[in-house]
Amino acid sequence: MRKLKNSELDRLSVDEFKTTAKSPLIIVLDNIRSLNNIGSVFRTSDAFLVEKIYLCGITATPPHKDIHKTALGSTDTVAWEYVENTIDLIKKLKSENVVIASIEQAEHAVMLNAFKPELKTTYALVFGNEVKGVAQNVVSASDVILEIPQFGTKHSLNISVSCGVVVWDVFSKLGAKSENLLKTGE
Questions:
Q1: pLDDT value at 136 more than 80
Q2: What confidence tier does 6 reach under pLDDT thresholds 50, 70, 90?
Q3: What number is the average pLDDT over the span 91-108?
Q4: What residue numbers bound the domain in which 162 lies?
Q5: Is residue 185 part of a domain?
Q6: pTM (predicted TM-score)
Q7: DSSP code of 35?
Q8: Under 8 Å between Cβ of 27 and 54
Q9: What CATH number is associated with residue 49?
């Protein structure tokens, strides 16, 4: 076996990415402090055709060299917007019939492996601060709380790892590569 060269990977160009159909997933970053985590979320979002990223509160915005270092250009492909107040954004998204799914350890959380997303539904996946997690008022306003099952001695994962796990899981459960599930690009 031989490793493939980047030129053999049949990747979309920036222009193609912007006009291609997107998966019904939105990412909300609630007060993320690490610029490297933000960049990593952009890269994951690019890989799975995430519709948009919302950067809220203290979450830094591109352009920034430390975001760029891990995003590797995905800040140019994935649509993003800064919104100061996360709860205001949650209310707006809910008014647009977006299902709010906070990723957190909370009462009545649904384990990610048991979560069954509904087809033709857009989900906003909310990831919280590296120390404090998703703000309680956002958790309270969520439609569902998803928890990543963990079996070791630690009780948390890095936000960029959490994002990769959750986005892949929901993307694959939706069969989001199917054309009938992808949202048409603008």
A1: yes
A2: confident
A3: 98
A4: 21-174
A5: no
A6: 0.93
A7: H
A8: yes
A9: 3.40.1280.10
